[in-house]
Specification:
Distance between the termini of chain A: 31 Å
Shape of chain B: globular
Low-confidence stretches of chain A: none
Distance between the termini of chain B: 41 Å
Mean pLDDT of chain B: 94
Shape of chain A: globular
Order of helices and strands of chain A: EEEEEEEEEEE
Number of strands of chain B: 12
Helix content of chain A: under 10%
Number of strands of chain A: 11
Largest sheet of chain B: 6 strands, mixed
Order of helices and strands of chain B: EEEEEEEEEEEE
Number of helices of chain B: 0
Oligomer: heterodimer
Largest sheet of chain A: 7 strands, mixed
Amino acid sequence: DSGVTQTPKHLITATGQRVTLRCSPRSGDLSVYWYQQSLDQGLQFLIQYYNGEERAKGNILERFSAQQFPDLHSELNLSSLELGDSALYFCASSVAGLAGTDTQYFGPGTRLTVL
Amino acid sequence: AQTVTQSQPEMSVQEAETVTLSCTYDTSENNYYLFWYKQPPSRQMILVIRQEAYKQQNATENRFSVNFQKAAKSFSLKISDSQLGDTAMYFCAFMNWALVFGKGTRLSVIA
């Protein structure tokens, strides 16, 4: 158990819908990262937050957004869902993430299925 | 942009034997970190080992060790005394700000 929690574990929804994935980092970690794992794209970095502020952006679609709240939990919002958004979404956390040198610990993931 | 290449999509090893997984990467950075993560059938991403580029000494964690060749941009993982529980996808990753992953090597440990 990494100490990172993600809810829900599974999510099944229809095209065009909007969903919210939730992540709670390890105790003491200030940085949260979101990754997408799909069969065709592999594991891709989406976005990073540090202490409530956006720190870095990766291959995140405009239909996707995220935020980190004062209690440091984070939410990833996916809207206008398409079939290709079906994937495993991971959250990871690290202590600081300031210089990108911290070890990241991953949550169990949320499996999203878009029908 | 950094890239990570794992040239072995699948490998198998007999229980108790040793296996080496290959990884090469491309970067213009001088200071960075390299990782191996394991993803068993449960799909959880588990940290196996970490290497700081400024350290010449290869990292070891129990049965897991790396061969880090900075000039060659190579970062291989050696698993000694392989166990059935080592069966998993293994991902090599480079980190500057965020992790850049290779496509993975599926390792099967055979009894």
